[in-house]
Design a protein that fits this description.
By secondary structure, the chain is an alpha/beta fold. The chain is built from twelve helices and 13 strands. Strands 3-4-7-8-9-10-12-13 form an eight-stranded parallel beta barrel, surrounded by five helices. The mean pLDDT is about 95.
Length: about 350
């Protein structure tokens, strides 16, 4: 029903406008008595065998919603009713910002993909904290970044501000230095700046009475040598793990007319590359840290391949848009089949 009817209708309109319309619709429907229970009955798979313990946290199931969908922690409770085991909010910055000029979100229908150049549009970390203070039981990841106007030499300050503000309200942190849509941000993935940034945040973490897991989100465009550097940095700074991967700048083998739009590409074209990165990190590190696999998951089999490659958890974004919430249930059902 979703793909034949709902998606066909929604895909007739501007993708960013549809995103906000869908948010409003889900929020409105979720206020109708009984509707949240219907969503749960349709999509939530309750089974103890799906529980997954990773970096000290117990996830109800290993399928999460990736950052970028609920940037401002507006809809995390309602979205959890679609069967997700965890919701990652953000990317959040210290000060709210509009992001890049519109139009900045593009569907590539022939490729089952999306190009975005949103540019960390969000209302700022303080607003998100107010919403997260009302959380009752949803496992939340906090994805943090720097403001566009903050120079790279001061970027660490922005990450520290977000870390401190969110600390009591999220279950784990994600340091995002891999978005292609904030000028010079990916330069922070270079070995020395990245090590310094992560060590600073980790030192803040270690000073707390109880620490929170810190993960690094990386780009799929890194070379093998750069990925080996990532492994070294993760082991040296002793952060909890890696999210692989963010969007790509590659446009290889795309069919859609608007494939040359600037921004990060997500969806099916990323499926194989993100799985390759997961496998490389897992094998070369001797599985020394957990990996959350994200990128091009459009079927239960795509998710299973990432788990088999070494991921402990998976996340959806573009696949959720193209395939609908039934994908979450399908992945969890397939995981249970393998446990039978």
């Amino acid at each position: 029903m979703y793909k034949l009817l709902i998606r066909s209708l929604l895909f007739q309109f501007d993708p960013e406008k549809v995103h906000y319309f869908t948010f409003s619709l889900i929020r409105l429907l979720s206020k109708v008595p009984g509707v949240p229970s219907i969503f749960k009955a349709l999509y939530v798979v309750n089974d103890k065998r799906l529980e997954t313990e990773v970096f000290g946290l117990k996830f109800p199931n290993p399928v999460g919603l990736a950052a970028g969908f609920d940037k401002d922690a507006v809809l995390y409770k309602e979205l959890s009713n679609f069967g997700f085991g965890f919701i990652e909010i953000g990317t959040l910055t210290p000060i709210g910002q509009d992001g890049n000029p519109k139009k900045r979100l593009f569907r590539l229908k022939e490729d089952s993909a999306i190009i975005n150049r949103m540019g960390f549009n969000n209302g700022g970390v303080t607003e998100a904290v107010q919403r997260l203070s009302k959380n009752e039981g949803v496992l939340i990841g906090g994805n943090i970044g720097k403001n566009k106007l903050t120079p790279n030499e001061n970027a660490t300050d922005d990450y520290e501000i977000c870390f401190e503000a969110l600390f009591d309200y999220v279950d784990y942190f994600v340091v995002n230095v891999s978005s292609p849509n904030t000028p010079n941000l990916r330069a922070l993935q270079d070995k020395e700046p990245l090590k310094q940034l992560l060590q600073t945040i980790q030192n803040k973490n270690l000073a707390k009475p109880k620490q929170k897991p810190i993960l690094l989100k990386i780009a799929p465009d890194l070379t093998d040598e750069q990925l080996l550097d990532i492994i070294e940095i993760v082991n040296e700074t002793k952060i909890a793990g890696v999210i692989a991967t963010n969007t790509t700048l590659s446009r290889e083998n795309l069919q859609s007319d608007n494939k040359s739009e600037m921004g990060g590409l997500s969806g099916k074209p990323l499926t194989n590359r993100s799985t390759q990165v997961i496998r490389f990190l897992s094998e070369k590190s001797n599985k020394s840290f957990p990996i959350i696999g994200v990128g091009g998951i459009h079927s239960a089999q795509d998710a299973i391949e990432k788990l088999d490659a070494g991921a402990s958890l998976v996340q959806l974004y573009t696949g959720f848009i193209y395939e609908g919430p039934a994908l979450v249930k399908a992945i969890n059902k397939e995981i249970l089949k393998r446990k039978a």
